[in-house]
Structure formats: C-alpha cells, structure tokens
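Example 4.3 (complexes with small molecules)
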Amino acid sequence: MKIICIGRNYADHAKEMNAAAPSEPMFFMKSDVSLLRPGTPFFYPNFSNDIHYECEIVVKIDRVGKNIAEKFAHKYYSEIGLGVDFTARDLQQKCKENGHPWEIAKSFEGSAAISNEFIKKEKLELSSINFSMKQNSIEVQNGNTSDMLFSIEAIISYVSRFMTLKKGDLIYTGTPKGVGPVQIGDELQGFIGDTKMFEFKIK
Ligand code: MG
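Answer. The structure with magnesium ion bound is encoded below.
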C-alpha cells in the first residue's frame, strides 16, 4: 500500500509555514513502515529535536484506478479516517534549504498515525467535515474540509494522473493551521465532529 500526503492544502497552514498556496495539488509519499498502527505509541525518534503533529483527514482508496476523472473520483473511496502526519520540522527545514527530498523528515518509521475506525462517507457531509486534535486535553488544531484548497475528488484525480491508486492506499489530505511540536509524555486525541478517532501517547 501507498501513503500519499498532500502538502499545503489549507491556506491558513501554508501561511503559518511562510509558504505560498499552491496552484495545483502538491503531494509526497510515506512508505508502509511509516504507518503507526492504531493504539500504539509514537516513539520520539533520536534524529530530530523538533517533531511536529499535523492532524489530517485521511481517505482510504478501495478501488484500483488510474487517470480518474474528478467527476468519477467519488467511486474510488467509501471511508474517511483521521491521522497525524508527523514531521521532523528541523530536518525538513534543512532539506528545504538544501533543495533535498523530504523523506527523512516525513517518511520515517511510525510517522503516519492512523485512526482505528473509519467512517462511511455517506454518514458525513464531505464538503464540510469538522475535525480537531487535542494535545494533553487542550485543543490545538481545528479544521474543516470546506477550507481545503483542493477537494478529495480533485486530489484523487490529480494523484491518479501520475500513479495507479490501489485498494488500501491512504491519502492524507493536508493539515489546517495550528501545527506544533510534541514532547515525550504527550497524549494526542483526534476527533471527527464529536467522534473520537484516535488516542495515543508520545513515548
Ligand atoms: Mg501534512
């Protein structure tokens, strides 16, 4: 399976990163070993001193497709989850400065936390899904898919121009503003609406 992550899909997050909002979707990938299984702790890696959380709506692909037209993209997924795109911000900054690829900052082991449950898309208003994350019981991020620069359908269509999407692939659709560092001992809880989607510790 592939893990595809959209960068800068919320204007307010692009702004807090001092980055321009993109004119077309921008994506990067994580590998299968990046997936942090539900209920398992995130172990703070020894190669970074500035790991940030990015809470994101995650789309699970459930049908094989390539060159998917945007109007048919809704047929390629049926469930929505919630995840955290963990980022080694210090390494990412170095990669950016050197014009290097991002993998060491984004695709390290355990860097893609995912919810245990996924919600059937029929149960959600896809164009206005409210989601949030708490760090030690304090809300640190709150976003709504209505603020996405590129919709789920637009993302699926765009990514499938470059690579075949397969059953089980996950698409992290970008983070709203409010990203920040985690510390060992923190507890993160993610919500879609009022439904708790994940809860785990930083160790
Ligand atoms: Mg992200």
